[in-house]
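Batch manifest line 630
LIGAND: magnesium ion
JOB: complex structure
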Amino acid sequence: MKTGIATVSISGDLREKLSAIANAGFDGIEIFENDFLAFESSPADVGKMVRDHGLEIQLFQPFRDFEGMPEPARSRVFDRAERKFDLMEQLGADLVLICSNVSPMALGGIDRAAADFAELGERAAKRGLRVGYEALAWGRHINDHRDAWEIVRRANHPNVGLILDSFHTLSRGIAVDSIRSIPADKIFFVQLADAPLIDMDLLYWSRHFRNMPGQGDLDVTGFTRAVLATGYSDVFSLEIFNDQFRGGSPASIALDGKRSLSNLMDAVQRVDGPVAALTARLPPPAEVEGVAFVEFAVGEAESDDLVAILSALGFRHAARHRAKDIDVWQQGEIRILLNRDREGFAHSSYIVHGAGVCDIGLRLDNSTEALERAKALGAKVFEQAPGPGELAIPAIRGLGGSILHFIDGSAPLSGVWELEFEAVDAQSPVEEAGLTRLDHIAQTMDASEMLTWQLFYNSLFATRKTPTLDVVDPAGLVRSLAIENSDGSFRFTLNGAENQRTLAGHFIAEGFGSAAQHIALQSNDIFATLAVLKTRGFVPLAISPNYYDDLAARFGLDDGFLEQLSASGVLYDRDEGGEFYQVYSQTYAEGFFFEIVERRGGYSGYGAANAPFRIAAQKRQLRLPSMPRH
Ligand SMILES: O=C(O)c1ccc(O)c(O)c1
Ligand SMILES: [Mg+2]
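JOB STATUS: finished
ARTIFACT:
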């Protein structure tokens, strides 16, 4: 199997696209004609430039409105094809994609189209070229790969074949099993794209919302399995029309593309077993069992502030690093590290971003395999020479340049807390507040980064995403989704800010980048927890009384219960599974905060319905303007 990507999938001019594609490790490209037309070099020079990047031109595309035309348009279309064949010879491309005719002039008829393709195949063969036929989902007469295949079959010419594109098949809900009986040698090329499920016009959906396999909701894995079942072993190419990608960073979009293809081929083999056409198998997606620690990079002043917050939340100072200026604050299974060291990664993170979460430790089944998979999927390994008595714990770069450490239950990693840290004897025992474990970590990023991080987590780990929700901030939208494992022991929410005036956008701007913005901690009895916290000076975020009036109306809550909620600043939600209680801390620094939650029954969400009221309250507290400043 070879990998490819259409130039249209990447931003920049042709040269920028090629270097990003080559650096990401693709074998070749589909040249999108407009990318060539907009470029200033001759066809021969463009061909050379592609090959100088170590890439091949796997496909030239698209050629439109070809089949089924009445005369005299038919003759003109053949003349136009000959001109493009000239161009292909100069470029050094031997396969052209012909997409199904959308012209109102097209006459339709399987045999008429087949005759046109037979003739075109003859003309292409004279030049050693091949033509591939693709059914656009919105083609005038042909909009289904099964009909396109019937035309190719009847054209019965060795230089005429079928091109399959997952979007066109899956967007129309066409059963992919119909692909399995197509002979592999008649499939000339395969294009892959995913897309979020949105009910809209097919053409608009395709041209603006496609994304990489695994980033959307289509069963691209099922499609790919069907293609491979034919014995097809040639190019799998990403053809992604996406507005965000057109404006994104060429290098990171290309890397996401490569990651998505590797992950897809791995997913196929997890269902079907080893497939000869595919490259080496990866270790399985890592099973995350929970969060082992969250580490903050802090200076002296912020450290004192955080210590005050953690104490108010019922954490106790449990241990100190044997060699470095790092303290462990603990409650239940939750470990929070405060790193004030003047050397190493935490310190550089502090210099660049200010105080904040710089490192998250994940507990998972096998950290060696997790690292191997992450590497194979293009994650950046993080290495820092361990100091005396320190363990080398596998780690990679995560969101905003932060670190993700992988800790498993095997020696010596499982003993890291005893090996590297010394327990601190509490002078006066602290009454714990009943916070048992970490519920979720909310990471804030620019909205344009969300697909990247969603793919990052879901390809490295055995996790899945929830549908994306729009959360309303008075100054704009924040897109939100969760990455979760099956038992809920691992939950990250990704929040994408569309502008800097939202609370999330402000946080990114002030911290110079994406980072964890809040940490939610679980209690088994939120009111008991709050009673303890009150004695420790914890002041919850004040929520508008109007919120509670509406809550009463929405859920039919009785007055006593409502009074209990509002008196303690607790927000409430309910789903089919159960109930959700949440309370927020004051915000800290430029908008970091803690949340305390209780899940009763099987509540599976994150209280998204409450987020706008929480955000408005936080903005009042931070005195951020709710409206754009002019
Ligand atoms: O949107 C289009 O016109 C278009 C063109 C070529 C393709 O391969 C395709 O899938 C869509
Ligand atoms: Mg296509």
